[in-house]
Write a structure and sequence with these properties.
9 strands; disordered N terminus; 8-stranded antiparallel barrel
């Protein structure tokens, strides 16, 4: 009899164990990692290189005053913009920036102009205002194209062959820009980007009327043709001032 009771107790324990286990609370799964959303305003800084070619022309005679010469310099500035994530994989944006630059180059007058003159061009600042269209490679990495307007302050210094006098004039040149880049979230609301921009600046007339230089004939109505190849690295901080307008699931 004792053996029968022990067997019954063991059998009851065996069939009761799953029921007890089923009644035990399960450990909650860890919360999913937050999905990044690109919507919001941002501020940033950027640093890079500004290089390419330029030349001076005579606006009246429609002749080149110099051969094409190289210009180069660094740049450093600030950025402001807004991104709007309109779909899980697409981001629209608007961005403006202004940068100090010391892009400089020099060309000497060529015949039929007087080679006693040398022309130095110094781009002092560069600003762009652009739209952006981006595709999300992942929720944290954006590949984009960009385009819009541009403006630059360009100083022309003319030296009357060494060590003669120099004259100077600064104009604001306007133009357009297109480019591409990749941007990624580093941590939290901090983002980093690498960007290339091509900038074309519309020629502007300098020294019209011509300055008076003793014993030298100075040709008026000069223009400078400049383009920029800008390669820069930027760091942005995004402000979560507004809720996202669309679902952010990637």
């Amino acid at each position: 009899m004792k053996k029968i009771l022990l067997a019954c107790a063991a059998f009851a324990a065996l069939i009761g164990t799953p029921a007890l286990a089923a009644d035990m609370p399960l450990k909650a799964p860890p919360p999913p990692a937050p999905i990044n959303n690109w919507t919001g305003f941002y501020l940033g800084i950027e640093v890079g290189l500004n290089i390419d070619d330029g030349k001076a022309t005579d606006t009246a005679l429609k002749l080149d005053k110099t051969r094409t010469f190289g210009l180069a310099g660094g740049l450093f500035g600030g950025t402001i913009g807004y991104n709007w994530q309109i779909a899980p994989s697409w981001v629209l944006g608007a961005e403006a920036d202004i940068s100090w630059t010391d892009k400089t180059g020099t060309g000497v007058d060529i015949p039929p102009f007087n080679p006693v003159f040398s022309n130095q061009f110094n781009e002092q600042w560069l600003a762009t205002y652009r739209g952006r269209v981006g595709y999300l490679l992942t929720s944290d990495w954006l590949l984009y194209v960009t385009g819009g307007g541009a403006a630059a302050s360009v100083q022309q210094n003319v030296f009357v062959g060494p060590p003669g006098p120099a004259i100077s004039q600064t104009n604001t040149l306007w133009g357009w820009t297109v480019g591409t880049g990749v941007e990624g979230r580093i941590v939290g609301n901090w983002y980093a980007k690498v960007e290339y921009l091509f900038v074309s600046l519309t020629p502007s007339s300098y020294f019209n009327p011509a300055p008076v230089i003793p014993h030298v004939t100075f040709v008026s109505g000069q223009a400078v043709h400049l383009v920029d190849d800008v390669i820069r690295f930027g760091i942005n901080y995004k402000f979560d001032w507004m809720p996202a307008p669309v679902a952010t699931k990637y």
